[in-house]
Amino acid sequence: MQSTDCSVVAEDYVRAAEVARRMPVTSALPLASQSRYLVDVAHAQLRLGHTKAAESALLTMEWAAPAWVAHHRLLRLLVGELMTRGRPSARLRDLAGRLSAASAPRPS
Q1: Which CATH number describes the domain made up of 2-103?
Q2: Which residue, 101, 37, 96, is CA-closest to 64?
Q3: Which residues have a Cβ under 8 Å from the Cβ of 29 and sit 6 or more positions away?
Q4: What does pTM read for this prediction?
Q5: Mean model confidence pLDDT for the chain
Q6: Structural domain boundaries of the chain?
Q7: What whole-number distance in Å separates Cα of residue 85 and Cα of residue 25?
Q8: Alpha-carbon distance 98 to 87, whole Å?
Q9: pLDDT tens digits for 46-63?
């Protein structure tokens, strides 16, 4: 997980994707770490032009940790970028809508 993060920070997206493929699916990471890891994977996949893989990672992250979605600025940026590429899936449009609702000011 840390190797994936370091590779993303270094903008070595090929290495980030390679390292992520070797990550055990059943790792016992804390939920916050899992969600950050999935956002890193999505970031690498998007930079490599793998929009479906990026979307899948983001949707998996939301499914696994819905309460964390509102706290991930990078997730919001990646969803916004995915929305501008091609024709977004219904699931991605729904996620974008939930993110917009989560960031909308609350009535006082």
Answers
A1: 1.25.40
A2: 37
A3: 1, 37
A4: 0.80
A5: 83
A6: 2-103
A7: 28
A8: 18
A9: 999 999 999 999 999 899
